Amino acid sequence: MKTIKTIKISSLKLTKRKYEKIAYTLKCFKDSVNFLIDKCVENPLFKKVSKKGNVYYNYSSYPKIRKNFYFEWKSLFPHLHTHYCHSSARITKDILKSWNSWCFKKRKRLPNPTYKKNSMKLEECLLYLKESYLILVIEPRSKLYIPFKTNKHYNVLKTDNHGEITLRLSKDRTIDIFIPFISKIEEKTIKSIVGIDINERSVDMLIVSDNQVEFESIDCSEVSTTHYTYSLKRKNIAKSIDNGGKYQPNVRKKLLNKFGRKERNKTKDLIHKLSNKVAGIVEINDSVVVMEDLTNIRQSNSRQKNLKIWQKKKSKKMRRRLNRWNFKQFQSNLKYKANSTGHLVEYINPRNTSVKCLKCGKITRCKSQVFTCKHCGFSINRHFQATFNIIEVFLKSQNVASSDPAERRQMKTMAGELCKFKESIVRDASQCGKVIQNYPILST
């Protein structure tokens, strides 16, 4: 298993001549990216026609961008190394793909994108490490040495293999350097499975091993409370400051940016703490992590303009709550931390995980925390049921997909343990509270 950890270090204070040369190279890099963007937008080279006859543009190939516009690029930037065109084409491809997808979502043409970052990400042949120096190649057969100061994180995580390095200019004649180090980690043997259901105010986990099943819920309501508190602060600022005044719009903008930055920093810290706690549980149990793939949850049918007769559009309050929900940030943090210790992270289809009855298997929509099936009358905690269904879906897929006989045998053992536990719950329990009281192996 490969893991990538990015380290930020700073260079020593450079001479004025060297700093100006790097700044000029960065300016040329930005101009080259913007030049390629202008050349690609609405170019017939990237024009495609779908089966239905609709016209669209496909910018998924950076070699195509580099190949078609290289000679024009070289005439504008003759002093730069050829591989600067390659790096510019990669960034151009990423920008145009993102812009194209946003145009498709908004169903209208957005303004042409521009590259405004004060940084450049270069290939390994243009920017690489050698001892305590960073070597930058600007022109063919010429090298620029950039000395830097190391820190404890650099000394711990340094490896022989690294990805594309990013440079960013600072005001004090120094340069911020971002180095992604690539390391190989052995996968841990799977002893249990952790099914995780991510909710707005809690993260619920069901841990299934060969001989026991354990349920745990972690409260994360502080994240949603932080979002709500800062939204009220921004609302009050927008109301109290008059836009008609001469200097008021600038003050309003500064205050909104200030409180928005505070909100982002606080939620980022809370999510890091939460993911650290969950990653610690995963490491203790030597588990494979199973989560729901919530990629397009904000683009659900109930939020679109063309609704069906039986659908209801979500309220403005609910839409704001959905847009403030940091599920992707938590999932990416947890995946990064779990993979760094050799534990796998898998995703499943989230369809009907919290509304599928454990007893009869039929679908019942519920709006409260307690799920009550309208077909058989079975009641249970909705979050507990979701974690149970997540692991059940994963185990069914592993019985078919796993090629290792020992791993397949272990998955079958866990599936049998889960089935026994399900039968005992269905037989004895009618409500979530009774389930937790009757079974000491469940803990919250």
Characterization of this structure:
With about 450 residues, this protein is an alpha+beta fold. The chain folds into two domains: about 1-185, no CATH class; about 190-220 and about 285-300 and about 315-440, no CATH class. It contains eleven helices and 16 strands. Strands 4-8-9-1-7-6-5 form a seven-stranded antiparallel sheet. Strands 12-11-10-13-14 form a five-stranded mixed sheet, sandwiched between helices. A hairpin with a 7-residue loop joins β6 (about 135) and β7. The longest helix is centred in the middle third of the chain and has 38 residues, at about 250-285. It is globular, with a radius of gyration of 27 Å. Mean pLDDT is about 85; it is low at about 430-444.
Task: Describe the structure in brief.
This protein is α+β, with helices and mostly antiparallel strands and 444 residues long. The chain has two domains: 2-184, no CATH class; 192-220 and 286-300 and 313-438, no CATH class. It has eleven helices and 16 strands.
